[in-house]
Amino acid sequence: MTSLEERSRAFAEEVQNTLNAVLVGDFEIVSRRVEGSERYIVQPRDRRHIPLSVGGTHLADLVLAIFLDMDRAGKYLKAVRSDFKLNSTLDRTPLLRLEYKADMHTDPIAHWQFHAERGAFSHLLGRAHAHRPDQVKSPTTCHRCTSL
Amino acid sequence: MAPIITETREGLRARRQAIYAHLGVSPDEFRRLAETSTLTGEEWDARDELAEISFLLGDDTSE
Question: How far is Cα A111 from Cα B47, in angstroms, rounded to an integer?
Answer without folding.
Answer: 18
